[in-house]
Every structure is written in C-alpha cells, then in structure tokens.
Amino acid sequence: MRIDIDSCEEILLTITRNKTRSLLTAFGVFWGIFMLVALIGGGQGMQSMMEKNFEGFATNSGFVWPQKTGEAYKGFRKGRWWSLNNDDAIQLRKNVDGLDVVTPTINRWGAKAVYSDKKYDCIVKGFYPEYDRIEAQQISYGRFINDVDIREARKVCVIGKRVYESLFRNGENPCGQFIRIDGIYYRVIGVCVSEGNISINGQASESVALPFTTMQQTYNMGNYVDMICFTAKPGEKVSELQPEIEQIVKKAHYIAPNDKQAVMLLNAEAMFSMIDNLFKGIHILIWMVGLGTLLAGAIGVSNIMMVTVKERTTEIGIRRAIGARPRDILQQILSESMVLTTIAGMAGISFAVLVLQVMDIATAKDGSSYNFQVSFGLAVGTCVLLIALGMLAGLAPAYRAMAIKPIEAIRDE
Description:
A six-stranded mixed barrel has the order 3-4-9-6-8-7. Strands 2-10 form a two-stranded antiparallel ribbon. The protein has helices at 5-17, 19-53, 86-95, 147-152, 161-167, 212-218, 238-252, 268-311, 313-321, 326-363, 376-402, 406-412, and strands at 61-66, 84-85, 99-115, 118-127, 139-142, 156-160, 178-181, 184-192, 207-211, 224-225, 227-232, 263-267. The protein has twelve helices and twelve strands. By secondary structure, the chain is an alpha+beta fold.
C-alpha cells in the first residue's frame, strides 16, 4: 500500500485532533512491543550467563563418590563408611563399554600455598591428564599435567587464577618458580584461568592441581580416591550406564544391590538437559506474554479507530458525496492505523534495545558480554509484525467507514 506525503500530513492532523485517545492507544502498542523485545533479549542474556557458568564442562559427564551405606549386607552393619580406590576406576574403564573417559581425583582442603612472603589458602587436587576432557583447563601460562608427570610422580603443579593473583605480580610468568604447600616445594608448570563454576570439589580458580600419583605418594594416601569422573561415548546416555556403574562399585565394596544411599552418582547430562528444557519453557512463556501484550495493544488501536470512524461519519459521508472512492476511505483508515502502531512500536523497540544495552554493559565482566540483545533479523521481523498488526487493527474500522452512505451521514449530522 502506497502512502503519499499529503496522506501522511492528513493522518498526523487526525491523530493530533484525537490526541488523548491516540496517546493512550500508542502507549498500549509501545508497552506491548517493549515487553516482547525486552523479554526476548533478557531471556537470551540469562541463558548466556548460565551457559558461561558451564563453559568448558563436559555435558555427557558423571561423577561417583561414596556415602554411608543405607542397608546392612554380608555381615557389615548399616551406616558403614567406605571409600573408592584406584581399582574401581580400572574396573569401570574395563567393564563398562559405554564409557569414554574414566579418571579418579583426590583433594585436600585447607592447604596453604606460600611463595616468598605471600600466602593463600587453597584446595590441593590430584588429577590425571584426562581430567581436561571432563572440565576444560584454560591455560594462560605453561601447560597442564601430562603423562610423564604421572609416570615419574613429579613434584610439579598447575595453580588456579586466584592463587596466581595472590602469590605473583600481575603479568609475571610463574612457570619455573617454586611454591611451598604443606612444607613441600612444587615447581609451577602452568596457570589455569578457568573459573570452574560447577564447583566439583571446590573452585578451579582457588585450587592447586598436582599429578595424581604425586599427591597419593606425598600425602600417603595409598590407593584412596575421593571421586571417579567419567564421560559417556557419543550416542550413549549416562542415565542408561548408571545401573551398570553402580553394580560394579557395589559388588567391589560389599554394598547391598538395593542400597540407594551408599553410592552417589551425579548425572551432569541430566542436569544440562533439565536446564535446556527450562530455558525452552521460558522462551515459550516470553513469546506468549509478549505477543499477548502486543495483541492487546493492537485491539486497543482497533477500538479507538472504530470510535474515530463514528465521530467522523459526516466527514466521510461528505467525502463520499463529492467523489471519494471506497478504496480511498479504506486507504485513509488503514494508513492511520498503520502509522499509529508503527510509530509507537518503533519507539518501543528503540527503548527496549536501550534498556538491554544498559543491562549488557552492567553485567559485562573481564571484557566478556552476556548478549542482552536481540538479533537484527528479530528486530526486522518485529517491524513487519507491527505493520501487519496495524493493518489488521484497521480492517474492521475501515470496512465500517466504507459502508457509510452519504445521505445517512448527512442525516446523522
């Protein structure tokens, strides 16, 4: 539909004459489109923040650790403490075909890292190199633990981000330097800048990672293991492997097969799936609320245009009497409706983008953005939706205006 300059001037004059009603109607459209765009952008930002917390973490992973037994079994009393060991990891790796990576971990809380005259309370963890496939280790200096460190039980360590910031100067390369932990010196071979927001056995940024064999020997732990971490092979689900994993562990430690308390298994795959479903539901709710509010605004435009047509019955009748075609009347009413919704809608989009930009700046951290914005394609689609709603809102008033007969309009006057 073509709208010339004279038509636009006439439309604006009409809107000015009905200033109060037009403002109220425009506010309804403005609020509807603002709600839709702001909710979509805010939902995307929240999802981005959540994904940032899980960044680098294997979504098909699981974790096994011991708890008190809940059933008496083979002469062992209920409430017995037991522990995992190196053999458990070997048996899981050998007997569960669906597992890809199986790696044990150990940790020690309350340790103190010392360098020169600086100290930091940290968590000491023992890892195999394969742990990098469970929780990606972002290394800024040096490297992560490798197979040679494990085989030779080297006294080396990888320090977390906060440990590095507390012990060394900003920008200083700590690789090759020695730090003291519990009276033993370790050579720093790398700095891990991962935050470790999943917090498996404590934050990665507050940890000092040692080779697994080094830690077992240093702290005289024998074959003791705190936790076994694993990932499923492509196409396999952790939930399907869980019964087999529990069966092998329970059999090795004389735990009742029906004991649901003794073996704790965290299924990260199920957790990530639940979060994905949660955000899908949130997105559906956002669209329902936003479109509902926008539709209410469009209905308001239609009602106001109906009142306007009724008030201008005489004017429309006179125009028909002097030769105006039904198409001209239709174009006039539809144009007014479309201009009103488009102006209000574009203002709503602009304000929503401004609010989202402020949120994006406010939540930015370390130069990273959480993307509290909407895509250009979505903005264009919203504009098209506005024009379509404006046209639909004006259809009923326009057909009513077309039905006005000049004689009846003069009598009405």
